[in-house]
Write a structure and sequence with these properties.
The complex is a heterodimer of chains A (356) and B (385). By secondary structure, chain A is mainly α. Chain A has 22 helices and 2 strands. Chain B is globular, with a radius of gyration of 21 Å. Classes of the chains: A mainly alpha (356), B alpha/beta (385).
Chain lengths: 356, 385
């Protein structure tokens, strides 16, 4: 009791950073959040995490519901369980909560995804279903594994047989054997590493991670932190890649509305954006919708235009404006026809904002 | 009695013989070698509309049963039917991509990434110097299909890609509701546009390429906003996504008159669990292709210069599955061979070619029609009149 009281009364301070600890600046934090949370940091997160040790920030993020929600979103995209094939049942939609609470691990979660009715609808028939299980779950090439495919199809159709090294006789056995295989662990980690570290995994390191994960899938969040620390983090931050439409739609809301959007707000946007190979024209329409519709939460310029420009550049691009940018934008803002919306529109639709 | 595809063809005017074949061969060779023989007239074809009748469509339900496809039958009288076009592989994505690359593309069935080989869109844009608005694809199948626009080939890629639009993704009720919720973008004054240009130039450093990309983007933006008022978003029914893709193509062809317009259909794949629905999709898509063809013929310039190619990416199994649907994995001829239709001002009329050709022959043929060499490869034989 005394201990509890003492803890409750103790000032809320964060542990001092270790000597060697790497801290994240605004741009780096934005990019890490886009990868792990699928959106830029909110104002309070920027205040909490900028300049803090990267390790502590990564722990906070990977233990959050948002991290698991983003994880689920990425898995649904990987299996193309989107649009009319998006899951509707609680067994899948509750996964972020269950993962956050440690009720399930990621292997259980993928297993659950592959047993959901929408997975079956997405992949109808023995040939398609088993092909997808082999390719997407285990990273196998069915063209090189025709025999295994045929065994899997027989099992799917109810015959007692062997598939991926195990015995079974049902469609759900096909999934179970795939998810329990070491090939699943290897393929899952390879694709997750590529997604989060923006690089192909070193084969020797991948073999070690596979062993750890195959033994205990709860290692996954620890692996994520390893992938985003030390040299691996520096390599990731040295590269940029295009921002996906779903992350762009969420970012647009955070950048212009200052709050995390609901799925209902971003899904129609994302779906429309995904309809174009080059989404720039529609991104432009959407930015104008938010800005012209008076829905954006915009900080007023005030008397110091340069300070306003700096703040917007840091917030949206994660960097200070160059001197020539600062001069040109401050000049533009001095013109009566130029609104703050005009500048924000240029920012969120810039080529720089289209990658991270 | 089941209708036999060949019994249908025998009722049509079948131009047999070496004369037509030799004439076609002569034209093709002369074009390939650039010999410009005085007897060879210049091609009339300036535009191509390529419909990937994808989702897995057997000949049995199309040209094997003319009642299902009266429009395709009508159009085929103005062109050439290849009744044994071998499909490239059996996943929808890779097989449809093969139509556009001319190379059998081994892709994962749910692989959501671009191909390595340049598409016909990139080939013609690069070689002929075409703008983005000269080459379009409209699609019906969601996430994977925008990947058809361009490859990741280092010499080609996005800068030569087709302007690609998935009709069902934009022109739907949800997106319209979004527009209504936020209101339409307001018109900007010239002063505001100038200020925007100033900010953008400061950010990007200006440059002709960036300006051109933005100008192209603005044209597409305007077109999308105007198309949203035309009722495409309200289309419903078994083939709604396919119908939107075809309707967008029809509007694009008649408004912009692009050099190359491709359409990728997908709804026929409901055949896995619903044979009747699949046949209904075939019928409705036939009607929509008929409308597209009619729109082309109604414009004298388009009628005189536009070729239409319709080809499925592959067929479907020979027999129904346990759900009374049709899968695609039995390796039968019904699956592996499809019928390819080509109609246009330069083609022979009413000819049926029963020799084996490849679905992958379509891309080199399209390049040739538009006057591009592309990457070579076999072209559809006996095509030209």
């Amino acid at each position: 009791m005394l201990v509890a009281m003492a803890l409750a009364l103790a000032p809320v301070t964060q542990a001092p950073p270790a000597q060697s600890s790497r801290v994240l600046d605004a741009g780096e934090l934005r990019r890490v959040c886009l990868d792990l949370l699928g959106r830029p940091p909110l104002a309070e997160e920027r205040a909490r995490w900028i300049g803090q040790p990267a390790e502590a920030t990564l722990v906070a993020i990977t233990e959050s519901r948002g991290f698991w929600a983003q994880w689920l979103d990425e898995q649904l995209w990987y299996f193309l369980l989107v649009d009319q094939f998006a899951p509707r049942g609680d067994s899948v939609l509750r996964l972020p909560e269950a993962l956050e609470a440690g009720e399930v691990d990621v292997r259980d979660a993928v297993h659950r995804l592959a047993l959901a009715p929408n997975f079956d609808q997405r992949n109808p028939g023995a040939d398609t279903f088993v092909t997808v299980v082999m390719e997407q779950l285990c990273g196998l090439s069915v063209d090189k594994q025709r025999r295994e495919l045929e065994f899997g199809k027989k099992m799917y159709d109810g015959a007692q047989t062997r598939f991926l090294g195990g015995e079974g006789r049902t469609q759900s056995d096909v999934v179970k054997l795939a998810v329990q295989s070491e090939g699943f662990a290897r393929h899952y980690l390879a694709r997750e590493h590529e997604r989060l570290a923006h690089a192909k995994a070193d084969p020797r390191a991948l073999a070690q991670w596979t062993k750890r994960f195959h033994k205990d899938p709860r290692e996954y969040p620890l692996l994520v932190r390893e992938w985003l620390s030390g040299e691996s983090l520096e390599r990731r931050l040295a590269t940029r890649r295009p921002i996906s439409n779903r992350v762009w739609a969420r970012s647009l809301h955070v950048d212009l509305m200052g709050a995390e959007p609901t799925r209902e707000q971003t899904e129609p946007m994302r779906q429309a954006l995904d309809s174009l190979a080059d989404p720039a024209p529609l991104r432009s329409v959407m930015a104008r919708l938010l800005l012209d519709g008076g829905k954006a939460v915009i900080e007023p310029v005030g008397s110091d235009r340069s300070a306003w420009v700096r703040a917007q550049w840091l917030r949206v691009l994660g960097r200070e404006p160059r001197a020539d940018e600062l001069t040109a934008v401050a000049d533009a803002l001095a013109q009566p026809a130029c609104r703050v919306e005009t500048v924000l529109y240029a920012l969120v639709t810039s080529e720089e904002a289209a990658s991270y | 009695m089941k209708p036999d595809a060949h019994s249908v063809y025998t009722r049509r005017l079948v131009l047999q013989g070496a004369v037509a074949g030799a004439a076609g061969l002569c034209l093709t060779s002369s074009h390939l070698n650039g010999l410009a023989l005085p007897t060879v007239p210049e091609r009339k074809t300036k535009r191509v509309v390529l419909v990937a009748f994808a989702g897995g469509v057997r000949t049995k339900e199309t040209f094997g049963k003319p009642d299902n496809v009266p429009n395709l039958m009508r159009i085929s009288e103005r062109g050439v039917l290849y009744t044994r076009a071998r499909s490239a592989n059996l996943g929808h994505y890779g097989a449809a991509l093969s139509i556009f690359t001319g190379i059998a593309e081994q892709r994962g069935i749910r692989e959501n990434s671009r191909g390595n080989d340049p598409t016909v869109f990139e080939l013609v844009r690069k070689e002929l110097g075409l703008a983005g608005n000269d080459v379009w694809i409209t699609t019906a199948g969601g996430a994977q299909q925008v990947n058809y626009s361009h490859s990741v080939h280092p010499d080609y890629g996005a800068r030569f890609g087709a302007t690609t639009l998935d009709g069902d993704g934009v022109f739907n009720r949800e997106f319209r509701a979004l527009l209504e919720r936020y209101g339409r973008p307001r018109e900007w004054s010239q002063g505001e546009k100038d200020a925007l240009t100033q900010v953008r130039r400061a950010m990007s450093g200006g440059g002709t390429d960036a300006e051109q990309r933005r100008a192209n983007s603005e044209r597409v933006e305007q077109w999308i906003l105007s198309e949203l008022t035309r009722g495409t978003a309200e289309m419903t029914g078994a083939n709604a996504a396919d119908a939107k893709a075809l309707r967008l193509a029809r509007n694009l062809v008649t408004l912009f008159k692009p050099k190359l317009t491709a359409v990728v259909l997908q709804e026929a794949d409901m055949a896995h669990g619903n044979y009747g629905g699949y046949v209904e999709v075939v019928r409705r898509n036939d009607a929509a292709i008929g409308e597209l063809w009619t729109a082309i013929q109604a414009d004298p310039e388009l009628a005189a210069t536009t070729a239409l190619v319709v080809v499925p990416e592959f067929g479907r199994d020979r027999d129904l599955n346990s759900r009374r649907g049709l899968d695609h994995g039995d390796g039968s001829d019904d699956l592996n061979y499809v019928t390819c239709l080509c109609a246009g001002p330069d083609f022979q009329r009413g000819l049926v070619v029963k020799d084996e050709v490849g679905v992958v022959d379509v891309a080199p043929t399209v390049c040739d029609l538009l006057g591009a060499k592309g990457r070579g490869g076999r072209k559809l034989p006996q095509l030209y009149s």
